[in-house]
Fold these 2 entries.
Entry 1:
Amino acid sequence: MDSETKTPEGQPRAEQDRVVIFDTTLRDGEQCPGATMTFDEKLEVAELLDEMGVDVIEAGFPIASQGDFESVQEIARRSQNSVICGLARAQPKDIDTCAEAIKPAKRGRIHTFIGTSPLHRKYQMGIDEAEVLERVTASVTRARGHTDDVEWSAMDATRTEEDFLCRCVEAAIKAGATTVNIPDTVGYATHDEFGALIRMLLERVPGADQIVFSTHCHNDLGLAVANSLSGVMAGARQVECAVNGLGERAGNAALEEIVMAIRTRADAMNVWTGIDTTMLTRASKLVSRVTAFPVQYNKAIVGRNAFAHESGIHQDGILKHAGTFEIMTPESVGLKESSLVMGKHSGRHAFREKLKELGYELGGNAFEDAFVRFKALADAKKHVYDEDIEALVDQEIASAHDRIKVVALTVIAGTGGPQKATITLDVDGNQQTFEAVGDGPVDATFQAIRSLVPHEARLALYQVSAVTEGTDAQAEVMVRLEADGKIATGRGSDTDTMVASARAYVSALNKLMARDARRKPETMLAS
Ligand SMILES: CC(=O)SCCNC(=O)CCNC(=O)[C@H](O)C(C)(C)COP(=O)(O)OP(=O)(O)OC[C@H]1O[C@@H](n2cnc3c(N)ncnc32)[C@H](O)[C@@H]1OP(=O)(O)O
Ligand SMILES: CC(C)C(=O)C(=O)O
């Protein structure tokens, strides 16, 4: 029991400190409404769990249906490393069917259970304490007739009288159970109560030191992981859990959280698991796909925000030293890197880094101007995508030497008419405002520009498209002007299509002016 071994990270660990990871995604996980998996999907999940280093896979409840029987049997046939376990009530037919299903496994386990609490005895089973005890002995004995690896569970253990629970556990051990599972079936226990329960059983039940105690905590009060870990700190050496916390009602303890808490806080818990944690993200995605249950964005370890940072102070810290705001590396759970999400809380450090990543180098004023425009965009838009930043910076670069700049624009549109645009332009450092009426808001805007900067150019093309998705997407407008056989194309982007239109028009105009070096700007201005 006390032989030394090594963790997957190569650190020596004693076998007695190893926590057996018992995955019940395919049994308790599948019991949650809507999470039914097909035969093939179950095989796919089991294969990944096996590869990931899960010690025991509870593959199903073979008596439940022919389909369950067949999937447990096939998983048992295919499993390379994991122990394959099936669930069975305290009934001979359940146990024999389960034994048949797990038979092909290199290592198989029968998991038999019975309700022990007063509520379960009286209402679910309609039997007294003596009969429960008899059934514990009979079921475990029958299971041992099939295999040496027998787990016994006291359903609703946390609401069972302590003395009676001790007697049940003792009966199970005497009959040959090698693992005794203490479920918090309805997620009722607090974390100190649960730890104390495991400690009490270890201290009081004869033979308790010869078997493995296991936890099986439900998440009705959001305490499943905390309670399981409390059980481990008290001496339990198996944790039953499910990928993404899938399970009856509010679910089971989430496998990824248990495993990463044990790994990250090995200093506090002094235990370890044999799980290849770099496969956790894959496992989460697979289970989410086959069950069609989305993973909550802010879910610990595998939520899409678990390694994402949006606020400037955090992004700055991450860029300087990831440890400032991350207690695990993204690589340790199978992600390539953390993500810096650009948004209204981002600061200059992150913005500069994002520009670098997109291949831009802006210095001095250009950077500051782009940053100010980025902040304004982030205020107006829910998601700022890379394409938004590219559009914004391209415009910034293109307009750096422009003589005409759009300062402000107000447009009145709608069915009432007339459509009006009031525009303020900066032309060679002088700001001027003009109001024009037009045939629609775009026409009014362009008329106002034409009035402030008189020119002969003809509008040859006006085209609007969206840079990204959603109703708050940036509009990208392309304007083509033609004058004296010359063509100039301008682009403008903004969440406001009219502002994007004005920018695009002015950009095309700037290009025309730049190409016509003979032309003096003063001659183009309205008097
Ligand atoms: C806490 C848990 O997660 S326990 C596991 C829960 N999972 C499931 O129930 C999923 C699979 N279940 C099924 O397919 C069905 O319920 C079956 C096949 C097991 C049983 O179906 P049925 O025979 O039609 O019984 P039904 O489900 O209606 O009722 C359960 C019966 O099992 C009995 N029972 C419940 N738990 C146990 C147990 N651990 N040991 C012995 N009998 C039990 C109940 O008292 C009830 O018996 P009764 O018919 O004499 O009143
Ligand atoms: C069968 C047992 C382990 C169970 O699922 C529970 O009590 O929640």
Entry 2:
Amino acid sequence: MSKQAFQDSYPAEFSHCYGCGHDNPHGLQLKSYWLDEEDRTHTVAHFTPKPYHTGGVPDKAYGGLIASLLDCHGTASAAAAAYFKEGRKMGTAPILRFVTASLSIDFLRPTPIKEELTLYGEITQLEGRKATVALSLSANGEPCATATMIAVALKPE
Ligand SMILES: CCCCCCCCCCCC(=O)SCCNC(=O)CCNC(=O)[C@H](O)C(C)(C)COP(=O)(O)OP(=O)(O)OC[C@H]1O[C@@H](n2cnc3c(N)ncnc32)[C@H](O)[C@@H]1OP(=O)(O)O
């Protein structure tokens, strides 16, 4: 696992995201990393929900939390892959910042709230400004949700 989270390389103006901004004290502050330093296609993040992230059932997570985590892990993974493709250190100018154009989620089973969740990402395509990321969220090794994201890099302006 790399030492610096992708999100910790975002410049200040992009660090207020509710899901992953390190400058948002009320947010989830998700941190994403390369799964393996030798492989620049797979990423990982971990998150342990709080009791107030509950859905209708007290010990299960609400779907919006799952979507938020997948959303932020996916865009961070896309940005990391794009920097790598350009041979640049994350966060260096010109800034490459991806936003979600499309996020399709399959909720496979209820997600427990009391355990650490693991998110995986795989960059399956990166062409021009568009990245496709395959995502999953699991608990205790069991997948609870899978998703496909299309993330698009913001234009420089
Ligand atoms: C100051 C800012 C602060 C921005 C602050 C950023 C904070 C980050 C937040 C973290 C993550 C989030 O939650 S993001 C929040 C939720 N998402 C958003 O708000 C994004 C809203 N949507 C947009 O702004 C726009 O639609 C964009 C940027 C996604 C795309 O618009 P665009 O820049 O004009 O690009 P466009 O030419 O349309 O598309 C580029 C390529 O992507 C493809 N593409 C576009 N949309 C889709 C789609 N839904 N499904 C498939 N493919 C798509 C196009 O076909 C094209 O492919 P090809 O022809 O090249 O093959």
